[in-house]
Write a structure and sequence with these properties.
12 helices; four-stranded antiparallel β-sheet; about 45% helix; Butyryl-CoA Dehydrogenase, subunit A, domain 3; Butyryl-CoA Dehydrogenase, subunit A, domain 2; globular; alpha+beta
C-alpha cells in the first residue's frame, strides 16, 4: 500500500522551513532581487539557528550530514541497510527545499551550509569524510566553458603529487561559488581512461590557487551568487577525493553521477515550492476578480481562467508526488536514477509553465512588481536548466525505460 501522507516527524521540520520562507525570505525577496550580488546578511541569523538545531540534536540539517547520516536510523544495529520504511535525510532535505523555495529560490540557494555540494558529499563520501566535511558549506563545480550538459566531458585535471592532489581548470556557473566555504570540484585523474577517471574533490574555498574570476548577472535567482572559478596548481590533501580514488573502467563514473540521484529530487522540490507559491498568489487574484474555482463542476463548464488553474494545479500535484517518490527511494537505498530524472523533468517543466501562466492570467498585476509573480517566472527557469536540462532528463528517462546505454542512445 502506498501512503501519501507525510510522516509526523517530518511535518514539524517542514513547518519550520515554511516559517523561514514566510517570515525571513518573503519580506526581503524583492530587496535582493533588485540588489544582485549583495550578500543577504539576514541569512547569518538563520545559519546560526540551523547550526544550533544540529548541535542540539533537534534536527540534523546542517551541511552534508543533513543529507545522510553515518549510521542509518532505519536499522536497530546501525547498519547501512534500513529495516522497513525509512524517511530520512533526503526526504527531510526535499521538504525543507520545497518550503524555503516557496519563500524565495535565490535566498534558499544562499543559505549557509546548505549548498548543492553538501548533497554531493552526502552521496559519495566515506563515513570518515562525512565526519570531516559534514558541517561545511559546499558549492558544486561541474560545468566548464567547453561543455554544459555532458558531464563526462570534464577537462579539469587532478594529478597526485605525493600526498596532495594538484588541480587545474576552469569551472563556470558555480552556485554559491564565491560564498561557500568549500567547493566540490569534478576533475579527471587520467584523461586516457575517459569518464571512468572523473572524480569529485573537496576544495577549501581559501585554498591557494583557487580564485573567483567573475560573478554572473542573471535573469533570476539574483540573491544567489553564480561564479566562474579558476584552479591554477591548486593543491589539496590526498584524502579530499570523495569516495574511492581507484579508477574502475567497468563501473565508469557511476560514483560521481550518484550525486545527481540525490540532488535532482531537491531541484524538483525547488520547482514545486515556487510553483505552489505562484498558484496560491494566482488563486487570490482570480477570486478577487470574481472567478470561482470549483472542484465539483467539470473544468469545461467553468470560467476559462478557472479551468486553466485546475490544469496547472493537477500538473503541480503530479510533480510533487514524483519528487516525494524519488527522495523516498533514496532514503530506502533503492536505485532511483530513473525516478530522480523523472521528477526533475516533470517539476522543471511544471515550474516554468505554472509561473509564466500565472503571470499571464494575473494580467497587469502579474507583469508588474506589485506582486512577486513576475519574479517567480524569472526564477523558475533555472530550475529547468541546472542539475541537468529538461532535454537531458528526458534522454536519461528514455535510456532507463528502453534499457539502452549512453552510447546506444545519444
Amino acid at each position: 500500500m502506498i501512503n501519501l501522507e507525510l510522516p509526523k516527524k517530518l511535518r514539524a521540520s517542514a513547518n519550520q522551513a515554511h516559517q523561514v520562507g514566510a517570515q525571513i525570505f518573503r519580506p526581503i525577496s524583492r530587496k535582493y532581487d533588485l540588489a544582485e550580488h549583495e550578500y543577504p546578511v539576514e541569512l547569518d541569523t538563520m545559519s546560526a539557528m540551523i547550526e544550533g538545531l544540529s548541535d542540539s540534536g533537534t534536527q540534523n540539517i546542517s551541511g552534508a550530514a543533513g543529507g545522510r547520516k553515518v549510521k542509518n536510523e532505519g536499522a536497530e544495529d546501525g547498519s547501512a541497510e534500513p529495516r522497513g520504511n525509512a524517511n530520512g535525510g533526503n526526504m527531510s532535505a526535499l521538504l525543507n527545499a520545497l518550503e524555503t523555495c516557496w519563500g524565495d529560490v535565490g535566498l534558499m540557494l544562499s543559505i549557509p551550509y546548505q549548498g548543492l555540494g553538501n548533497a554531493a558529499i552526502a552521496a559519495v563520501a566515506t563515513d570518515d569524510q562525512l565526519q570531516r566535511f559534514g558541517k561545511v558549506w559546499a558549492a558544486m563545480a561541474i560545468t566548464e566553458p567547453s561543455f554544459g550538459s555532458d558531464s563526462a566531458a570534464v577537462t579539469t585535471t587532478a594529478v597526485l603529487d605525493g600526498d596532495e592532489w594538484v588541480l587545474n581548470g576552469t569551472k563556470i556557473f558555480v552556485t554559491a561559488g564565491s560564498r561557500a566555504t568549500h567547493i566540490v570540484v569534478w576533475a579527471t585523474v587520467d584523461k586516457t581512461k575517459g569518464r571512468a577517471a572523473i572524480k569529485s574533490f573537496v576544495v577549501p574555498r581559501d585554498a591557494k590557487g583557487l580564485t573567483v574570476s567573475r560573478l554572473e548577472h542573471k535573469l533570476g535567482i539574483k540573491a544567489s551568487d553564480t561564479a566562474e572559478l579558476r584552479l591554477e596548481d591548486c593543491r589539496i590533501p590526498a584524502d579530499n577525493i570523495l569516495g574511492s580514488p581507484e579508477v574502475n573502467v567497468e563501473k565508469g563514473f557511476a560514483g560521481v553521477m550518484q550525486t545527481f540521484d540525490n540532488t535532482r529530487p531537491l531541484v524538483a522540490a525547488m520547482a514545486v515550492g515556487v510553483g505552489r507559491a505562484a498558484l496560491e498568489e494566482l488563486r487570490g487574484i482570480l477570486e478577487e476578480a470574481g472567478v470561482e474555482i470549483s472542484y465539483d463542476v467539470p473544468p469545461n463548464n467553468q470560467h476559462a481562467a478557472a479551468a486553466e488553474f485546475l490544469r496547472l494545479e493537477a500538473d503541480w500535484e503530479a510533480a510533487y508526488l514524483l519528487s516525494l517518490r524519488a527522495a523516498w527511494m533514496a532514503d530506502n537505498k533503492k536505485p532511483n536514477s530513473l525516478e530522480a530524472s523523472m521528477s526533475k523533468a516533470k517539476a522543471g517543466r511544471m515550474g516554468t509553465d505554472v509561473t509564466l501562466k500565472a503571470v499571464e492570467l494575473g494580467g497587469s498585476l502579474g507583469y508588474s512588481q506589485r506582486t512577486l509573480l513576475e519574479k517567480w517566472g524569472r526564477d523558475s527557469k533555472i530550475l529547468d536548466i541546472f542539475e541537468g536540462t529538461q532535454q537531458i532528463q528526458q534522454l536519461i528517462v528514455a535510456r532507463r525505460v528502453l534499457g539502452l546505454t549512453s552510447t546506444e542512445l545519444k
